[in-house]
Specification:
With 99 residues, the chain is mainly beta. It has one domain: OB fold (Dihydrolipoamide Acetyltransferase, E2P) (Beta Barrel). It is built from 1 helix and 5 strands. A 5-stranded mixed beta barrel has the order 1-2-3-5-4. The longest helix is centred in the middle third of the chain and has 4 residues. The chain is globular, with a radius of gyration of 16 Å. The mean pLDDT is 90.
Length: 99
């Protein structure tokens, strides 16, 4: 049996990719605790855009833009997990004046 290493993350761009194609995505999770109080948890996930992904979408990267990233997990030199993006989708941006 082959091991599976696949991840899908949906959130918002926390930064635009740097020269190395690295950025991060913020994922917000809203849930209720046992007493019915709303809890919000925000996580930052480091993403590495390789294979021309950063160059292909340069005009679409903007802090706060909703994004879905499909990729695989891999540890960096420090042992931290990073998402190596294989596919990226952006939520459409609509012009509010024409809506």
């Amino acid at each position: 049996m082959n091991d599976l290493n696949s991840v899908i993350v949906e959130g918002e761009m926390g930064s635009v990719p740097n020269d190395d194609g690295k950025c991060y995505v913020i994922v917000t999770r809203i849930s209720k605790d046992g007493l019915g109080r709303v809890e919000t948890t925000r996580n930052h996930f480091f993403v590495v855009l390789k294979g021309g992904l950063a160059e292909a979408y340069t005009d679409k990267f903007k802090r706060g833009r909703k994004v879905r990233i499909v990729g695989r997990l891999q540890n960096d030199k420090r042992g931290r997990a990073e998402i190596f993006a294989e596919h990226i989708e952006f939520k459409p941006v609509f012009d509010s004046e024409n809506a």
